[in-house]
Amino acid sequence: MNYKPYSPEWHRYRYLKEALDKYLEDGIDPTFIMDDLRDILHLRSEAAYQEFSRINQLEHYLSDE
Asked: How many domains does the chain have?
């Protein structure tokens, strides 16, 4: 990808590349890389669901008023 230097896309690509390069330089098995990615996504999803649940509860409480 050829993103405009210092654009948000360029920074995201660079950070992802650096992380993957580190895994590869350390000789990490690809299954561990995939496990880490899944774990990160799962944690993010769980946090988003908890926030949704709190907001949903508040909306229900407000609608009962």
From this structure: 1
Examine residue 3 and state whether it is found in any structural domain, yes or no: no
pLDDT digits (tens, 9 = 90+) for 23-49: 999 999 999 999 999 999 999 999 999
d(CA 54, CA 49): 9
Is 19 within a domain? yes
Please spell the DSSP secondary structure of 1-65, one letter per residue. --PPTTSHHHHHHHHHHHHHHHHHHTT--HHHHHHHHHHHHHHHHHHHHHHHHHHHHHHHHHHT-
pTM over 0.90: no
Domain-embedded: residue 35: yes
